[in-house]
TrEMBL record:
It comes from Sphingopyxis terrae subsp. terrae NBRC 15098. The lineage of its organism: Bacteria, Pseudomonadati, Pseudomonadota, Alphaproteobacteria, Sphingomonadales. Catalyzes the stereoinversion of LL-2,6-diaminopimelate (L,L-DAP) to meso-diaminopimelate (meso-DAP), a precursor of L-lysine and an essential component of the bacterial peptidoglycan. Pfam families: DAP_epimerase. Its EC number is 5.1.1.7. GO terms for cellular component: cytosol. This is Diaminopimelate epimerase.
């Protein structure tokens, strides 16, 4: 019997989604990395494995293209919401997420953002609103954990930053013991941000849902914008709503591309 999967994307951030709720699928970092390979595998930014949950409607496990398992993925959460097709609670390593499908996408309610340095986590105490560190022209970053760790830099022009060079340097800096997602953003109108993201374990992506959430939260804290915030990424727009002391709400598109069959054993 062939193993089935669904290829999906959220604003170009693409996924191989495996529904293992009825029939379990063993997933290792090496197998996830092989499936994600765009030349020799199926190809994706992240592999998403759906499993039964005793705490929620479904458990979502997230594997980056390098095989590392991570806590959260906003774009994948919207995709899974459209697959479920009704309001649901999704269990992740980053916490419980409430989702509601909408026309062409979904709304996701994440938890409250975390700002304490030890919970980002950082290797040493510092002010996460205005970090006293720099990598070339990127300085005065803000750190936020939205289920996974992010650092955000506000710059005059996001497209002008050599993120392909600076992203991997910052991601793997010893300051971030669990590595970090790197965001560069610029103001693009009233309550609008332009954003590019270097994703931990993936690289440059068309969109990053948690990056959009973290960036909007940091911008609201800094007084740059007010909620709701439209965040424009290379793949499209997300709308983020947040007030201090409240959970983050993200809305955006999710697309089912095709259904496929394979044999997971061929990937190790």
């Amino acid at each position: 019997m062939a193993d089935r999967f669904t290829k999906m994307h959220g604003l170009g951030n693409d996924f191989v989604v495996i529904d293992a709720r009825a029939n379990s699928v063993e997933m290792t970092p090496a197998r996830a990395h092989a499936i994600a390979d765009r030349r020799h595998g199926i190809g994706c930014d992240q592999l998403i494995l759906l499993e039964p949950s005793s705490k929620a409607d479904v458990k979502m496990r997230i594997f980056n293209a390098d095989g590392s398992e991570v806590e959260a993925c906003g774009n994948a959460t919207r995709c899974v919401a459209t697959l479920i097709g009704k309001p649901a609670v999704i269990e992740t390593l980053g916490g419980m997420l409430r989702v509601t499908p909408a026309d062409g996408g979904a709304e996701v309610v994440l938890g409250e953002p975390v700002f304490d340095w030890e919970h980002i986590p950082l290797a040493m105490p510092m002010d996460t609103r205005d970090m006293p560190v720099a990598w070339d022209e990127l300085e005065h970053g803000a750190a936020v954990n939205v289920g996974n760790p992010h650092i955000i830099f506000f710059v005059p022009e996001a497209d002008a930053v050599a993120l392909g060079d600076l992203g991997p340097r910052i991601e793997t800096d010893p300051l971030f013991p669990e590595r970090v997602n790197v965001n560069v953003a610029s103001l693009d109108g009233e309550n609008q941000l332009q954003l590019r993201v270097w994703e931990r374990g993936v690289g440059l992506t068309q969109a990053c849902g948690t990056g959009a959430c973290a960036t909007a939260v940091a911008a609201i804290r800094a007084g740059i914008v007010k909620s709701p915030v439209t965040v424009s990424l290379p793949g499209g727009d997300l709308v983020i709503r947040w007030s201090p002391g409240e959970p983050i709400v993200m809305s955006g598109a999710a697309t089912r591309v095709f259904e496929g069959e394979t044999d997971w054993a061929q990937f190790g």
